[in-house]
Amino acid sequence: ATPKIYVITPTYRRPEQVAELTRLAQTLMLVPNLHWLVVEDAVAPTRRVLSFLDTCSVPHTYLLEFVVANKPLINKCYVPYRQPPSLAGRQGMASRRYKGANKPRGVSNRNAGLKWLKGHAKEGIIYFADDDNTYDYRIFQEIRETKQVSMFPVGLVTRLGVSSPIVSGGKIIGFYDGWIAGRKFPVDMAGFAVNVKFYLKKNAPLMPYNVGFEEDGFLKALKIKPEEIEPLADNCTKILVWHTRTVKSLPALKMPDSDKVTKTNL
Ligand code: UDP
Ligand code: MN
């Protein structure tokens, strides 16, 4: 049997949210044997996300801090996950607690996904897929073969235009990235995948709340040497995922007055 791919997607409420999720879902629809963990940075389910998931044909689980609507694996599932107290808050809590670039975006969500996996999966592949990136469906064919940890290039990261392991003789001998910053693994969140069995064997570490060092901290905790990492995408010569970013919608996005639009399509 082919191993199942668990895609962990952090998401948060904003005007672009359902558009991002739609684009991502329609890529994931092309991938067999995949389970999508949609993990929202919110304390209560978002109605628009729930109705999006209602018609979403990708097998998925919707996770929040502790309430989960799960389909089609289990019908309703309550995961006793709690936000670290210092980060607890309302919608988009990370963005409210941390101003500017200095906030760990998506970390609590990814960790909620990892905790769910620890309780629900024994084998398979873990992949962190932010909601705003762009994925070629072939990256999922590649990562399905991951035995421990695999890596591959990510386009549109820093001014270098790409972040990639440096491969020689089929082994990773270094990293090409515009921001090394003393990291042992200077890679993007979208640039690696982890085997579930391997992850569990390494005591299922979580991601640190450490801006810019989330990937590095997580990968270090897996205690793997660069030369043991499996280079994918033809020895890291192909870009199959891009760290795209969506321009924020106009802040002036306004709903029509409800009294003027009753009994119409609006
Ligand atoms: N995110 C989140 N809460 C926030 C901000 C971001 O859950 O307050 C999610 C977002 O949906 C995305 C991931 O975290 O999947 C990374 O955020 P973003 O794309 O803003 O970061 P960047 O790619 O710019 O580093
Ligand atoms: Mn992003």
TrEMBL record:
Mn(2+) binds at D132. It is found in: Golgi apparatus membrane. GO terms for molecular function: galactosylgalactosylxylosylprotein 3-beta-glucuronosyltransferase activity; metal ion binding. Its main location: Golgi. One of its GO terms (cellular component) is Golgi membrane. Glycans are attached at N235. This is Galactosylgalactosylxylosylprotein 3-beta-glucuronosyltransferase. It comes from Homarus americanus (American lobster). The chain holds residues 150 to 415 of 431 of the full protein.
